[in-house]
Specification:
Layout lengths: L3 E2 L10 H7 L15 H21 L6 E4 L2 H15 L5 E5 L4 H12 L3 E5 L9 H7 L4 E5 L13 H10 L3 E5 L18 E5 L10 E5 L25 H17 L2 H20 L3 E4 L9 E6 L4 H10 L2 E2 L1 E2 L1 E4 L2 E4 L1 H5 L4 H4 L2 E5 L6 H20 L2 H11 L1
Helix pairs in contact: 1-7, 2-7, 8-12, 9-12
This protein binds pyridoxal-5'-phosphate.
Length: about 400
């Protein structure tokens, strides 16, 4: 069965060029970059090349790049660094729609005694900047707002919120795990202090991430021990993955223009085609400010998980907007925060594309999905009721 992979916000295919560049580091080039001998030292030099490529992609200096084990570690490091270096401040500002890497940590910090403000979003998943400005005070240690949402693709005006944080002496961090490689990012003249990203969302392998820390930002490490990453993140480097991330960064920079425009056109055709072919289907999130590769669609009166199972039978990989929590099917916290009605939130799926998707993939989904939704609705008493209501 041909796989149609439309779950690229969950993880991406490792680019063949990345695999090729990594392979020697599992074989003959196994040295430790911290070693005194040149066998290891040569590996250190290649890591520095990867750091430079990574920095180029986001308009940073190589010295501002700290390699971590994943996006989640970068997020935790950022929040704990800001709290650790501002012990006189005990307030955190974030949003109700963050990925659990920040959302879960913020909830934990609340339990530890920090005051946390979770900024609300509107029906289209947008933040109210006035509300953000009001929430940030001179007690705020850190403002952490994601650059782009992993479920809906909605993009926030992080630059403006960063300036608000700066004005109050707070650190500004953004979880840009979904944004890097999909939209242009230039941190050179930015007010952003810290930024997290993750390799496996941009065609590098799982298990490598980055925390960008602007030069001059107060910092305290999350992992202490050895002197790796100039003492900012102890632990022997994940050499092969870092080298892979360097290559993936170069590819992402090359693909930001034309290739991403092609992905956006595919996404638009997919989205439009589904809305035209299927009744009571709605797109979630601000259509103006969205990642080029993501669409979140609600199909009223069906279960997202059931759609995924049916799609799975035909080789289509997607993801639902909801998570199963202890046996009860809870709609996602993102859609709930947006006030998406229960009947829609339950039937939401996310389709996320990459440069490896083709027109044929879109055609397959457009062919399969109307039948999947019709079959599921045929089993739904609520859909029958709704249809009777309409005709009666
Ligand atoms: N932040 C966002 C917005 C994400 O989408 C993800 C992964 O889905 C993460 C953080 C976590 O990244 P990682 O899997 O590298 O820990």
């Amino acid at each position: 069965m041909r796989v149609v992979y439309l779950d690229n916000n969950a993880t991406t295919r490792v680019a063949p060029e990345v695999v090729e560049a990594m392979t020697p580091y599992f074989g003959e080039r196994y040295g430790n970059p911290s070693s005194m001998h040149s066998f290891g030292g040569q590996v250190g030099k290649v890591i520095e090349e990867a750091r430079a490529r990574m920095a180029d992609l986001i308009g940073a200096d190589p010295g501002e790049i700290i390699f971590t084990s994943c996006g989640t570690e970068a997020d935790s490091t950022a929040l704990y660094a800001a709290l650790g270096t501002h012990p006189d401040r005990s307030h955190v500002v974030t949003t109700r729609v963050e990925h659990p890497a920040v959302f879960g940590l913020a909830q934990h910090l609340e339990k530890e005694g920090y005051a946390v403000t979770f900024l609300p979003v509107d029906r289209q998943g947008r933040l109210d900047l006035d509300q953000a400005a009001e929430a940030i005070t001179d007690q705020t240690a850190i403002v952490s707002v994601m650059w782009a949402n992993n479920e809906t693709g909605v993009i926030f005006d992080v630059e403006q919120i960063a300036r608000m944080a700066k004005a109050k002496g707070a650190v500004f961090h953004t979880d840009a795990v979904q944004a890097v490689g999909k939209i242009p990012i230039n941190l050179r003249d930015s007010a952003i202090d810290m930024l997290s990203l993750s390799g496996h969302k941009l065609h590098a392998p799982k298990g490598v991430g980055v925390l960008y820390v602007r030069k001059g930002t107060k910092f305290t490490p999350f992992l202490r021990g050895g002197h790796q990453e100039r003492g900012r993140r102890a632990g022997t480097e994940n050499v092969a993955s870092i080298i892979g991330l360097g290559v993936a960064s170069r590819l992402a920079a090359e693909r930001l223009g034309e290739e991403n425009a092609r992905v956006a056109a595919l996404r638009d055709r997919l989205e439009k085609g589904l809305i035209e072919r299927i009744p009571a289907a709605y797109v979630n999130g601000d259509p103006e400010n969205r990642l080029p590769n993501t669409t979140s669609i609600s199909f009223e009166f069906v279960e997202g998980e059931a759609i995924l199972l049916f799609l799975n039978e035909t080789g289509i990989c997607a993801s639902s907007g909801s998570a199963c929590t202890s046996g009860s099917l809870e709609p996602s916290h993102v859609l709930r925060a947006m006030g998406v009605p229960f009947t829609c939130a339950h039937g939401s799926i996310r389709l996320s594309l990459s440069v490896y998707n083709t027109d044929r993939d879109v055609d397959t989904v457009l062919e399969v999905m109307p039948d999947v939704i019709a079959r599921l609705r045929a089993m739904s008493p609520f859909w029958a009721e709704r249809s009777e209501g309409r005709s009666g």
